[in-house]
Amino acid sequence: MISNICCIGAGFVGGPTMAVIADRCPSVKVTVVDINSERINAWNNSDLSKLPVYEPGLDQVIERARNRNLFFSIDVKSAIASADMVFISVNTPTKTQGLGAGKASDLRWVEACARQVASFAKGHTIVVEKSTLPVRTAEVIQNILKAAQDASKNKTSSSTFSVLSNPEFLAEGTAVKDLEAPDRVLIGGDNKDAIESLVSIYRNWVPENKILRTNIWSSELAKLTANAFLAQRISSINSIGALCEATGADIREVARAIGTDSRIGSKFLEAGPGFGGSCFKKDILNLVYLSRYFGLPEVADFWEEVVKLNTWHQQRISSIIVKKLFGTLSGKRIAILGFAFKANTNDTRESSAIQIGKDLLDEGANLAIHDPKVDPNQIEKDLGLQQVNKDEFERISNNNYGSWSFFNEASKACSSADAVLILTEWYQYSQINWDEIALEMRKPAWVFDARSIVDSDKVVNAGLNFWRVGDGA
Ligand code: NAD
Ligand code: UGA
C-alpha cells in the first residue's frame, strides 16, 4: 500500500496533479519538491491568490490539503528517501543544441531526477514518469536505477525500483476539472504489482473503466500522439479558415457543419491565432525527431507540417494587420487584449501573442498590452524588450522601432489606439462595450478578433472596422 508519495517538479503539472491526489487520498502523504525555492515559497504562500499557477478551483483544493497531507519543499533528498512512490514531473523542453537540436526533447532534468532517486531512495520505490517523454525513455530511467540497484547489493540496505509511465492529459485552464474527472488515466508498465499500486491511488476517485493499462512504450507514445492529434485539428481548422477568408465562407459555419458528424466531433475546431502552450509544438517536434530516427521520413514530414502551418498562420495574422493599417505600423498604437496562450491561465509559454507581438514591434507598432492574469515581467521576458513607462508611452507618436506598455484595464489599453487585437479568449473581452471604446480610438480604427469572441454587429455599429479569423463575408 502506498502511504508516502514524492513528486519531483512543482510546475504546472506537478503542483495541481499532486494537490488533487492529496485532496482525494487524505491518508497518503504527498510531498512536492523542486529546486526552484521561489516556486516552492509561492506554493506555500498563505495568500492563495499568489500561488505560482493560476487555475480555476486550485486555490480551494490547496486550502483543503496543504499542510494536512500535502507539502511543498526544497528538501529533495528526504522526500525521496521516505517515499514509496516518486513521480517525475519536470520540464522536458526541446533541445536547443547538440544532437537533435530543435526537435528532440532535452532529457537532462529527467536524467538528473533518475540519478537523485537512485542516490536517495530506500527500500522498494515505484518511479512514475509523469513528464511527457519520448518513447523508450523509461529505458534510460531503468538503466540509471539498475546501476544504483546493482551498486547497493553489497550494502546492508539495498534499494529496488519499478518504473511506470503515467502521462498527464490535463489542459491548462481546466486542470482541476480534468484531474478530478479525467477522460482516462493511462498507466504503462510491465510490473503488475507496481501498476496496481498506482491504480489503487487513482481508484480513490476515478472509476475502474477509465483506467487504461498498457505496455510502457504504448503509454509513452500515446501521450505524444494525443497531443499531435489535438494540434493537428487546430492546424486543420486554421488552414481552412484562411481558405474561408479567400472564398467568402465562414469558418464557424464550416466547423459547425463538420463537427456535427459524430465521427469528426465538435471539439477542438475553434479557429484562433494558432496553438500555443508549452507542449503541442515540442511534443510534435519530438514525434518528428523520433520518426526520422526510426527511418520514417514521410511520417516525420507529415507531422512537421502541423507545426509549420501554425507558424505560417501566426505570421499571416500579423501581415493582415499591417495591410489593413495602410502597410505601416510605425508610430501606431495597437491594443493587444490577452497575452496568455489561452483563457483561464497565467501561462504564456509559446503563446501566439509572443510571435505576433514581436512581428508588430518589428513593424514599429506601440503595443498597449492587457491580460487579466499574466505578470508584465513575464511579457517583458517573452518579448525580449523592456516596457516603457506610461508617460513616455503616451508621448511616443512617430517611431521606427516598436515599444510596449502594460495596462491594468482593457479599456485604458484601447484608448487612442488605431486597432484592438484580441489574442486570448478571456470572457471579459466578449463583454466589451464597443460604443464606449470607439469614442476613444483614433479613426479609422480596427478591431481584429483572432478568437471570434466579440459580437461583430456591435463593433461595426460603433463605427469600427472589423476583421475576424476565418470570416470571408
Ligand atoms: P514546469 O516547467 O512548469 O515545471 C517543471 C518543474 O520541475 C520546474 O519548477 C523545475 O524547477 C523543476 N525541476 C526540474 N528539474 C528538477 C530537479 N532535478 N529536481 C527538482 N525539481 C526540478 O513544467 P510543466 O508544465 O509542469 O511540465 C512538466 C512535464 O509535464 C513536461 O514534460 C510537460 O511536457 C508535461 N505536461 C505538461 C502539461 C501542461 O499543461 N503544462 C500537461 C501535460 C503534460
Ligand atoms: C494540451 C492538451 O489539450 C492536454 O490534453 C495536454 O495534457 C497538454 O496539452 C500538454 O500535454 O501540455 P493545453 O496546451 O494546456 O493542453 O491547452 P489546450 O486547450 O489544448 O490548448 C492548446 C492551444 O490550442 C491553445 O493556444 C488554444 O487556444 C488552442 N486551441 C485549442 C485553438 O486554437 N482552438 C481550439 O479549438 C482548441
| Arithmetic mean of pLDDT | 96
| Cα radius of gyration in angstroms | 24 Å
List how many beta strands DSSP finds: 14
Distance between the termini: 62 Å
Assign an overall shape.
Answer: globular
Number of helices: 19
- How many domain units? 2
Biggest sheet architecture: 6 strands, parallel
Please indicate the percent range of residues in DSSP E strands (runs of 2 or more).
5-15%
Low-pLDDT runs of 5+ residues are none
Helix content: 40-55%
Fourth-level CATH superfamily of the largest domain:
NAD(P)-binding Rossmann-like Domain
CATH fold-type name of the largest domain: Rossmann fold
Q: List ligands, each type once.
A: nicotinamide-adenine-dinucleotide, uridine-5'-diphosphate-glucuronic acid
The CATH architecture classification of the largest domain is: 3-Layer(aba) Sandwich
List keywords for this structure.
2 domains; six-stranded parallel beta sheet; 473 residues; binds nicotinamide-adenine-dinucleotide; 19 helices; Rossmann fold; 14% strand; binds uridine-5'-diphosphate-glucuronic acid; alpha/beta; 14 strands; 44% helix
Task: Give a verbal description of the structure.
The protein is α/β, with parallel strands linked by helices and 473 residues long. The chain folds into 2 domains: 4-214, Rossmann fold (3-Layer(aba) Sandwich), CATH 3.40.50.720; 217-473, 3-Layer(aba) Sandwich (Rossmann fold), CATH 3.40.50. 44% of the residues lie in helices and 14% in strands. Strands 3-2-1-4-5-6 form a 6-stranded parallel beta sheet, sandwiched between helices. A 6-stranded parallel beta sheet has the order 11-10-9-12-13-14. Strand 7, helix 8 (192-202) and strand 8 (211-214) form a beta-alpha-beta unit. Helix 5 packs parallel to helix 6 and helix 12 crosses helix 13 (352-362). The protein is globular and about 80 Å long. The structure holds nicotinamide-adenine-dinucleotide (NAD) and uridine-5'-diphosphate-glucuronic acid. Uridine-5'-diphosphate-glucuronic acid is lined by residues 132, 168-172, 227, 230, 234, 268-270, 272, 275-280, 341-342.
